[in-house]
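Morning run. Coffee first, then this:
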Amino acid sequence: MSTFVLIHGGSHGAWCWYKIVPLLESLGHTVVTPDLPGHGRDRTPIRGLTGAAYLDSVGSALNPLADKAILVGHSMGGVTVKAAAERYADRIAGVAYVAADVVAGGQSLATDPALADILVTLGPHISADTDAETFEIAPEAATRFFYNDCDALDIALALRLLTPEPTATITSRIDHTTDRYLALPRLGVITSEDALLPADVQQTLYRRDGITDTVSLLTGHSPFLSAPGALAAHLLNFADRVG
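And here it is:
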């Protein structure tokens, strides 16, 4: 049996995996779904949070586990997962990215040229709170970009649970020394109907990162909601391959 640690993307929380968790657990696997600081049920004050706080949070989820984990990162969670895979490589059996922002070493979401078009796309739909040092996406834009193939109930749930994102997480640079990271098996899940992170951009990010093991889902940006069975199957196949 495998252990999975699922890391959500920006403005989301552990709640987003609610369809995936029972699928994996019903087969006897262990699933850990932490809320990153300031998200979901975690009540850490958002003001001043950086990518380093997210990284420490992943370490707190990994350290108590009896077995090495398959570390899974969605969307913006890919930034945290890549850094965590380097720092905590001895606790990780493999890394799976799902429609993930896999930034280049030494870059941030704001400075990586491969992601520049995404920021331009979202820019008009983002409102910033300079006092709280946060930003959030408008509900209609979230529906369009995050949940374009999700059903109405899941969209309503998600819009109710989305939280503001700390501005500093966009500009935080987390350096990667790469040696320990590159030794880990890695999977890239491409969402072919993604309205936020187009499939060709995902392919570019994965290829640049040296990820040759890729699979495709005929979904939008949130396959954990729109196609949980298909996503779970890819994660299980990857876990089988890495042992």
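The chain has a mean pLDDT of 95. Good start to the day.
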